Fold these 3 entries.
Entry 1:
Amino acid sequence: MIHSTIVGTGSYLPGEPVTNDDLVARGIETSDEWIVARTGIRARHFAAPGVTASELALVAARRAIEAAGCAVDDIDLVIVATSTPDYIFPSTATLVQAGLGIRNGGAAFDVQAVCCGFVYGLAIAEKFIASGSHRRALVIGAEVFSRILDWADRGTCVLFGDGAGAVVLEASSTPGVRATALHADGRHNAILCVPGNVAAGKVTGDPFLRMDGQAVFKFAVKVLGDVAQEVIALAGVPQASIDWLVPHQANIRIIQSTARRLGLPMDKVVTTVDRHGNTSAASVPIALDCAVRAGQIRAGQRIVIEGVGGGFTWGAALIDF
Ligand code: UT7
């Protein structure tokens, strides 16, 4: 059996942190107290006008490749999870492949599972590697959510930020990625969406992110607890053997509630939501890379990553690092 292991991580956050007080100064009717109390977010990063998801992805990818110590042409699969692609087509993954100078004719495609996109991408890459068709995958989450925020909607615009995170996943004789679980329930597609499209040369519908915050909150708390327990059971390992939970970074209250369900103290949970806000598909790989570079997550440790996002989609992976 061919296993797969993460051999390098990287991330990139554009520009300087934008604090809650900075948002107030920009005229948004909110306060640092409200945002911190309801979400735990203190700051986020926004890409400068004109900067695209593929540009953020490229920086994160180069850092992951450098950490992996491989050559770009060793990468035969590029997957970019994004809901804010550069274009309708070509895919952001093909732009990243070209930007990196990969010329080996490997596969490259985008995955659209909103905030769960990176977990979907990693699970797909693991299955490609297990099948023997590919040997080394670059899996990226990259977002410029600032482009789809309605700055007049204080219930959403304070929550999100821009950024990118990446991993190199490589075929190995020992696991690695021990279990993955992916789910979706399309009946809930309207509680978190950007319900617009481009047709006949113009945007039809609504090009901004819309969310029923309380419905999303309840859904997220339930499925994130369930899916983490599911991958632990699938891997057949004791819950107590988990060294780190790396959850989607949307709201500290959601993260705390998942940790409680798993019986994990918060010092075993990677949190970056305070510094980065919700970077959607980028949140899990950014949090992972921050924890690796801070010396928190180390070789030989066991982690669970998990995500939940519009669709609704949710999923998790249990990984021996
Ligand atoms: O990747 C998944 C993405 N999304 C999420 O995970 C978000 C999940 N949901 C949440 O995190 C929470 O529902 C929110 C943080 C979005 C909102 O918290 P809440 O406790 O559900 O607040 P709410 O929407 O019920 O609003 C409570 C009050 C309202 O005022 P009234 O009606 O009680 O007078 C809002 O108008 O807070 C007000 N409010 C704000 N006040 C200051 C809403 N947004 C803001 C704001 N600043 N930014």
Entry 2:
Amino acid sequence: MSDRKKLFIKTYGCQMNVYDSERMAASLDKAGYDQTDEVAEADMVLLNTCHIREKAAEKVYSELGRIKELRVAKPDLKIGVAGCVAQAEGEEIVRRQPAVDLVVGPQAYHNLPAMLDALKPGKPVINTDFPAEDKFDHLPDDRRARRAPSAFLTVQEGCDKFCAFCVVPYTRGAEVSRPVARILSEAKDLVSRGVAEITLLGQNVNAYHGEGPDGEMGLAALIRALAEIEGLERIRFTTSHPNDMEDDLIAAHGEIDKLMPYLHLPVQSGSDSVLKAMNRKHTAESYFTLIERIRAARPDIALSGDFIVGFPGETEADFQATLDLVERVEYAQAFSFKYSARPGTPAADREEVPEDVKSERLARLQALLLQQQRAFQESVVGRVLPVLLEKPGRKDGQLIGKSPYLQAVHLDAAPELIGTIQQVRIVSSKSNSLSGELMG
Ligand code: SAH
Ligand code: SF4
Ligand code: F3S
């Protein structure tokens, strides 16, 4: 019998957590753990957590309560909390749930194997340090396994923007960009393992300014370098801040074929007084002007955004300004949330908009956004689009792929085509996906 153990990871929150979970699995692979999808057979459970809204953070404690019960059958089960709740709450986690053995912040994952070695029963190990060096240097993924056709690659982490509502600058720390050479070698490795599409990740990805061979390079220059990699067919990036959308990045959308026509550009609110109170440092008009410039460079670009309703001080007129902005922009996709006060952020002490007002505004905004999303889905019906085939669908003989506009497309196709881009005629649209037929 093999003496390898089993690791179960549950990932919450943003795509960076998905990427981090992969890297933690790679680093624990070396420490003797194989990943499993079955929590019941795990020797170690890691929750990679999110602190962005209260609900996200509270979910972690109810999940920990359930996981603790697995110790009845498996007394040696190790329980770890990683991610942004780990960073924000540290020791408090162990106080609230003493069954936790490990608390590890997002900048300390390279310490995981050593932390495991240090574990003694009843003595939790906590590490929420912010080391100066690049944590990814210590987390090489040399498993060489085949990968799914689409992968994430973190190029930038942390945020210096300090929006008044947001925990990210505290949980992820200051903005740090990875050097270009490391990103290129990681991208080449992914491509050699079957990856055709890479999504570059950063909390503020368009503020990327990594060290290149001849000085600092911005995101547009990085994308140009990545586009040279043979076999890498598609490049995406997320999430961008409107204030960091430089001219060369806008131009890149019209010039680089591999850069997909989809941009996630959160605005949060359409009211200038709310934007000011949020410390966003842009106005509704400057955002709209930016959108016009991006559309001039790439007329078919699909735009997506994030919205917060019920930020402290938001009046009905402020909210109406958000609806007006949405009407003007016409989003292909969007995410909207009720404001959630986060401890330690500047807005946390401000007087809150009543919950029923928040709920009512969210419903109105979501109705409008859904209408726009449906209209966008409908607009591609009848077109032939290049679709990257990614995985088997639910039905036999069916595959699921992705359009350039980040839409899921279902079609009948042979599994051998997974990982290739095919021309697909879009025949119908459902709320969350499209159906298509292979051409030729
Ligand atoms: N730039 C980041 C944003 C992370 S948070 C990124 O890389 O994605 C994602 C979204 O969550 C934000 O754009 C914002 O709309 C929302 N959000 C952040 N803090 C919030 C809070 N306190 N309450 C409600 N929504 C929040
Ligand atoms: Fe949070 Fe604002 Fe930074 Fe985005 S830009 S991570 S919303 S502080
Ligand atoms: Fe959540 Fe942290 Fe991402 S708070 S959204 S997991 S950066």
Entry 3:
Amino acid sequence: MNNEDKTERGEYAGIEKILTVLEKSEKHYDVEKIERAYLYAKALHEGQFRVSGEPYISHPIAVAEIVTTLGLDTDSICAAFLHDTVEDCPDKTNLDIISTRFGEEVAMLVDGLTKMKVINVEDKEEANMENIRKMLLAMSKDIRVIFIKLCDRLHNMRTLGVKKDAKRRTTALETMHVYAPLAHRLGMQRIKQELENLALSYLDPIGYAEVSGDIERKYGLNQNFIENTRAIVSEKLDEYHINFTLEGRVKTVYSIYRKMFKQNKSFDEIYDFYAIRIIVDTELECYTALGIIHEMFKSIPGRFKDYISTPKTNMYQSLHTTVIGRDGIPFEVQIRTREMHHIAEYGIAAHWKYKSGASSKEEIDQKLSWISRLIDTEDGAIDNEDFMRALKIDIFSDETFVFTPKGDVIALPQNSTLIDFAYAIHSEVGNKMVGAKINGMISPIDRVPQTGEIIEILTSSSSKGPSRDWLKIVKTSEARAKIRQWFKKEKRPENIKIGLAELEKELGKFRVKPTEEQKTEIINATARRLGMAIPEDLLNAIGFNGIAMTKVLAKLKDEYERIVKPDEENPITETEQIQTQKTKKIRSNSGIIIDGEYGCEVKFAKCCNPLPGDRVIGFVTKGYGVSIHKHDCPNVIESRKNPDNADRWLSAEWDSETLSASGQNKALFEAMLQIHAEKDIMLLANITTCLADMKVSLLSINTQKSDDTDIIINLTVGCKNVEHFNSIMSRLKAISHVHTISRGFS
Ligand code: MN
């Protein structure tokens, strides 16, 4: 390195700091390559200045420094130095040059960073904001792009003060609505909190100043509260010989501000203003510490959360509880292990900071393969498979994100076609669709759009409606349901003709031909057995493909045997037997048969969480497929009173395989349990041990309310079917201090 590069101005000190960190690190870095990236970026940005008047290179240095603190690899640090060069110095460099000098990976990262432009967020609704965030994740291809982008944004926010007012506002809005939630999703708590606090200070400077002033005032008033609490908690933990670290004052200005705003409370009404954090060695010690805290202080009901047994999707693990301390002052206690703490602070990036080396044997797709090189399989602290699964689900979601011409982002399941897109916008757009454009070019309507494309649907009021072939093309159950709905309504006379012809053809196949009268009788009886009020409904359903023919034919054959050949010995039982065997072989993905169809995509309603064995019913939701409720769910009973919904109800039943699921069948359903019990220090431990004994997974647990002696605990568990559920109930009932158990939360 040349001498003149060293600290001739203050900003240049950053590079020295970075090199010192790299030299001290146990991980291997290609320091020569990093220095080259720095010098190249410095040369390219020569003569460019930031609004503050500093040389531009001070910004990439600062970003690279944050990237280094996160523990990211050599290529990430190089990309941080180079991240603005392609866009800001187009006449001096491009991706090809960067690729030749620093390799394809660095070029790929720089490319990803250059492309990450956030579209205007100012007038967007929350659902659309979520799609923008997901789209950024999907577009970035490599998670390091997001990490570096967050570091870039963090430095821009730290130095936003010098920018013009309007620029400050848009940048702060983007930060609040897009980048801070992204950091949150990746579990990067530190960056998330700093981004939120900085964004708030620009979006509502007065509110920010007020709350931070109030915080200082309140800490001043109860100066010793946190210190005292820490002292007595420490003493008690020492008695139990627990090796711990205690932190106080963990609430940020933004978190207090948000509580005041969301719950419409004044500053003095904020409940858990004070907080302490206990960091211990083992998971068991977490629960022991929780027991100690609950023994020392009165706990506030409904505030206990166990994120250890049920981690958040961003991998966050911790126990949370709120208790009443000295002078009736409530405070929150967070308890976790050191490992959990690292992940809470750095999220997914923690894998770079704390793991290195050896390659993994996991079978993962190419998109993720580079991660496997960076995770040490011998260090079993976090299950690799779980980590990969979490990444795939939450980060590389199987969705495609496309723009409407107005700039709204629409999320579609992967491989959806332009027809699916049209129906996702509105049924009428789909029904009147005559063509489509992708990025301004006319495109066949069965094409599969790619993330980032702008899609315009061409409609015409003279369109004759969807074609029956579309049912074979579309990928989403929503589009399919809407197309069927259209045929059901608009083409009823035609459907009835098609349906009748279809059944006559089938009846014609029997050896003994039924008479016209018998035909009518057979069709009427078949319709009744399929739950149709009039035979025309059945014919209509056959006509618009709304019912599976296999189901119709089984019943039709029964009725034929009954009406045309009544004398033969017990033919119905025999047919039924064959039919059951047939049904058993077919397995629907969801375990649910809708209106006789196996392929439907369904969601299980959260209000009643139906289990295999429960009597169920389907409801066509607006935009979220068919939701399955228990037949006696209060929401169903209420909603059925509304005649507008009449044609949205569908008959639903469990498929036989799901019902007969044995031990090896892994399909689990969420089931809710409510336990009324007498307060007891061992109660929660006994419940969790009992569930663990039965190998039942606990999905959530919280205490709802209580009086002095009694407590109500709401549990969500993974459950196979009604029978399994009942056995769980009876085992839990046997635990001492438990009074009653019921299904569902009241
Ligand atoms: Mn930048």
